[in-house]
Write a structure and sequence with these properties.
414 residues; alpha/beta; 17% strand
Length: 414
């Protein structure tokens, strides 16, 4: 089995109890304004279910890396603005989303937090201040984890995006609480990334992009072991494979030291019956005149002065044809330098193809910030079966790496 099912808050009695829900409210905030509330919205189903059970809901999250930024400010002789890392703004936005007041306390441990949690009434919500204001969070300090555990009777981890970190609020706390279960968002992630990929409908097609092969080799190896039928590789990581196969790739990004590994991976795929498909054309610019030299050419015609920045139209068509025939689709990573137009065209083309296949009955799972941004830019974000909220957690899970925040939760006994 690819994963073991975990108990959720639906499987335990939380009625009238104090439950601490680890959420992922690490959202972009600028000048006191939340720029994207997707992660807050994702936690709403768990919060609303708990409220329906008359639970006393305590929420805990991190926001940025305040201690690291404080250190940098001190070294530069600048004043550190701690309020920029406060979750107070998030409490207000969450209140709007769930249609009720969300209480806020200016610390996550200590007397103020203990008092606020002790006095919390059933069916109400309290958001603790940023966990990362304390060194004990990222260090998984036992004393800090014990303080968090003392705030509740049941621990609920609903922060899949932080589950790959063994922090006090994801792993450490479970040693000091009698019951530790998954939230509804966490359960949904495990369902799609685990059960679906453990026994996928076929053909099973995976699409991997991004800059570095080194980030994705463990994922590729895991997918090959799970007999993915076709593996489409785009983005800068494709150039390591192309160069290893004898192509001239100009000044495109290549991890030369990983070329032997790329060939080894291709051989493993061949033996497993997995077809790896690489780009046949790409958008390039001349490294000496990048503003005026953009063109789309076959990969075969790449000379020494060119830099590849996106897959070409022929590759989009080839990849799309494969995606069209898929029953299960996994996509992680952009096909080019997505953040710069017009080098987002390949990624958007793949987004449209995945959405079309989903409309025709395929199960699609998309993760990674740029991939998700492409879905939204193409206007098809709501047409995907499951959009993962994890970044590094998604990759590590797909690579078969145990996630501390998941492993620590109670399993369903079968």
């Amino acid at each position: 089995m690819f994963f073991k099912m975990k108990k959720t808050l639906r499987d335990v009695d939380i009625r009238g109890k104090r439950i601490l829900v680890r959420v992922d409210f690490n959202v972009p905030i600028k000048n006191g304004e939340i720029k994207d509330d997707t992660r807050i919205r994702a936690a709403v189903p768990t919060i609303e279910y708990a409220l329906q059970q008359d639970a006393k809901v305590i929420l805990a999250s991190h926001l940025g890396r305040p201690l690291k930024e404080q250190k940098k400010a001190a070294e530069a002789g600048r004043e550190f603005n701690q309020s920029a890392f406060s979750l107070r703004t998030v409490a207000a936005r969450l209140g709007e989303l769930i249609g009720r007041n969300v209480e806020f306390v200016s610390d996550c441990v200590g007397d103020s937090a203990q008092s606020a949690c002790s006095n919390l009434a059933g069916g109400t919500v309290l958001l603790l201040e940023n966990l990362r204001f304390h060194e004990g969070e990222e260090k998984n300090d036992a004393a800090f984890a014990r303080e968090l555990g003392a705030l509740c009777e049941v621990f609920v981890n609903d922060a899949f995006g932080a589950a790959h970190r063994a922090h006090a609020s994801t792993e450490g706390i479970t040693h000091f609480v009698s019951q530790s279960v998954a939230g509804l968002l966490m359960a949904k992630e495990l369902e799609f990334l685990g059960r679906t990929l453990d026994n996928p409908l076929r053909p099973f097609v995976a699409i991997l992009g991004g800059a570095k092969v080194s980030d994705k080799i463990p994922v590729i190896e895991s997918l090959i072991k799970r007999k993915v039928d076709k593996l489409l590789i785009g983005g800068a990581m494709a150039y390591t494979f192309l160069k290893a196969n004898g192509y001239t790739v100009g000044k495109s990004l290549v991890e030369d030291e990983l070329m032997p590994k790329a060939l080894e991976t291709e051989e493993a795929a061949r033996l497993a019956g997995t077809e790896i498909i690489l780009p046949s054309d790409h958008q390039v610019v001349d490294s000496y005149d990048p503003l005026n030299s953009r063109k789309t050419i076959p990969v075969d015609f790449t000379n020494t002065g060119l830099v590849g920045l996106d897959i070409g139209t022929e590759t989009v068509e080839r990849f799309s044809a494969v995606i069209k025939g898929a029953k299960t689709i996994l996509w992680n990573g952009p096909m080019g330098m997505f953040e710069e137009e017009p080098f987002d065209q390949g990624t958007i083309g793949i987004a449209l193809a995945v959405a079309e296949a989903t409309r025709n009955g395929a199960i699609s799972i998309v993760g990674g910030g740029d991939s998700v941004a492409a879905l939204n830019k193409a206007g098809v974000g709501k047409e995907i079966t499951h959009v993962s909220t994890g970044g590094g957690a998604t990759l590590e899970f797909l690579a078969g790496t145990p996630l501390p925040g998941v492993e620590a939760l109670e399993e369903i006994q079968t």
